[in-house]
Amino acid sequence: MSRRPRAPRSGGRIRLEDRIKQVIGPAETNRKNSNHPFPNGGTLLKASRLLSLGLAVSLLLAALAPASLAADSAPPSTSYVAFGDSLTVGYEPGKSADDIPYGYVDRVYEQALLRGRAEMINYGIAGLNSLGLKNLLDAVTAEKLVKGADIQPNLPDPRADQVVSDTKALKADIASASAILITIGGNDFGAGIMTEAADWTDAQLDAFAADKIKAYSDNLTSVLDDIFAINGKVRVYVADQYSPFPNINKSLYERLQKLKDRFTEKLNEIAKGYGATSMSVTAVPVADAFVGHEGTYTHIASRDIHPNQNGYAKMAELFSKAIWGDYRSVTADSDSSPITVFVVGRTVDTPHVPALLQGSTFVPLREYAESLGATVDWDQATNTATVRYNGNSVALTIDSKTISVNGSARSIDTDPPHAHESAGETKTYIPLRLMAEGLGFDVKYVPQSRTAYINR
Fold this sequence. Notes:
By secondary structure, this protein is an alpha/beta fold. 31% of the residues lie in helices and 21% in strands. The chain folds into 2 domains: 2-324, Rossmann fold, CATH 3.40.50.1110; 340-455, 2-Layer Sandwich (Copper Amine Oxidase, Chain A, domain 1), CATH 3.30.457. The chain starts with a strand and ends with a strand. The relative contact order is 0.14. It holds the Pfam family Lipase_GDSL_2.
């Protein structure tokens, strides 16, 4: 069931959903990849295609779906792009090579899927500072070929060369993006800030803050100018910087809070300035949310400043509220079904829940197809269900590895439709993959939340 690592396509674009293993059933592929060491201890996961360490799973739709029912006639996906440092990557210390990252970008992508077809392209680079991001965007604007060391020396992220390898494609991703998410600036201050600041005078703190924040401001402004030169209509969301240090040393805590507040003030000033020119920049208020929660939102107890899952969830909530005005829980129902399934952003109101059959996740055909706007007819004599949607028809027969698409027979590589007893009825259940491959719907599965998203 495993396959050797797939190298990134030369010059290809990398989507978050391309990076991890598919776990719906035995027909799916488990993509293996090499370890990626990062600073502060630990290794950071396996990353399919290496570029997108940010998100969970997709079902590969193109292998079977007939052209008349699948991608060619499908509505376009809304595109999101993420830039930044290890927070964008979704790094956590102590993770093994088998762990799939589940950072704030991954969670925001799920929020996007609740609203329709979406893709998230993650260009996060661990260790990146604001100057490195500026240099990257300058290279993108000029479509200049660069390596990781060209944008920032000694980047600890071994994927850096591949992340920046195709600036022309990266530029195209910016041009087509609806929104861009950014976390940057934490690496500008240096790892020693949490211990050094305790001994500084107020004048020393002011001088340090003024120097670092000016450089950050200049670099971020250049980044935003480059982005808007490529796509003047894109909405950009930039997080401010939280302080991970808990209130166990009052003097140090207060100094770091002052530094955090000055950083936030500068970001708000930058965002307001772009707003005056009709460019959309939103400062995402992460910093205040972490105040008083440093111990529960970060790995600081393990001497690491990165968010833990609670912290990444809070960041995702704040980004989502900034982008869409709300944030929805996608926690799986662990008692009634193996996964939670959202159909066009809603769970299906039915007693016939998804089931684990023959090693794959199956869903009741009628309930899920009708919730997408399709009609379903049942032929008792042949045990065949015919689904009609958007002028096309697909006939599926119980226990058959062949489906009929607009009258033409096609073999399927999933488990076949299956008769299943549910809530006192015999229902036709089909593999979740077949919702995409046979019917042309968009299906994404995220293993960390055990949630599938089906969109028209």
